[in-house]
């Protein structure tokens, strides 16, 4: 079932409301999809659910939609953060796209001792994550934080959140068992969750030592193989969603 083009907008959405497209969206509709006007699109803004809208005016670098009716009620993704050490460009884009598809609510790049920091162009990452959210039919987009040193990120750690440490070294229970145990015996003081993966070079012994001693950190293993950072992030997020998140739900309009 081909679904209509989905576009993320920041405007409020309600019946009959006009919504101006961004210039890049107008270009995409006019020059890539060859829209002429009158076509249907689905709009979402992370607050008001998903609405059917019609392309009302289409010109050079501009497009306007008229919102018609609501298709889906707003549902925010589970409250799951991903802390990750930025990695090389193409793999970084891949990691962002997978994290969006796997429903993270917030992306927090952390700089560790062995992080190979490349100038990360925020607007490119933002465009990538919006495109991934449009494609995977999410109704919200994750927040993207600016990079921060790991110890600074840990200093201000929120008291209600546990941090799953993907530890490639040292003793650690398999993630599936660790999360199943957390589901069986939740920590009422820390209902929220986050995942942390390291850079290509891994965590330093000192970093792992520090992390292991923090009360909110849950070290886990992802099996006997050394996974690339993006594979590790994807694996941990998928297991979390399946055990503690929305992994049991079905995609919209395809439940039968
Ligand atoms: N190059 C390092 C590993 C870095 S892999 C080495 O050879 O040891 C990048 C990150 O992915 C790691 O920091 C860790 O967070 C995660 N990771 C990779 N494999 C893992 C595993 N088997 N168990 C837990 N975490 C893993």
From TrEMBL:
Keywords: Cytoplasm, Methyltransferase, rRNA processing, S-adenosyl-L-methionine, Transferase. It is an enzyme of class 2 (transferase). Its main location: cytoplasm. Its EC number is 2.1.1.193. It catalyses: uridine(1498) in 16S rRNA + S-adenosyl-L-methionine = N(3)-methyluridine(1498) in 16S rRNA + S-adenosyl-L-homocysteine + H(+). Pfam families: Methyltrans_RNA (PF04452), PUA_4 (PF20260). The keyword NAD does not apply. GO terms for biological process: rRNA base methylation. Transmembrane segments: none annotated. One of its GO terms (molecular function) is rRNA (uridine-N3-)-methyltransferase activity. Residues 78-241 form the Ribosomal RNA small subunit methyltransferase E methyltransferase domain. InterPro entries: Alpha/beta_knot_MTases (IPR029028), PUA-like_sf (IPR015947), RsmE (IPR006700), RsmE_MTase_dom (IPR046886), RsmE_PUA-like (IPR046887), tRNA_m1G_MTases_N (IPR029026). Belongs to the RNA methyltransferase RsmE family. This is Ribosomal RNA small subunit methyltransferase E. The lineage of its organism: Bacteria, Pseudomonadati, Pseudomonadota, Alphaproteobacteria, Rhodospirillales.
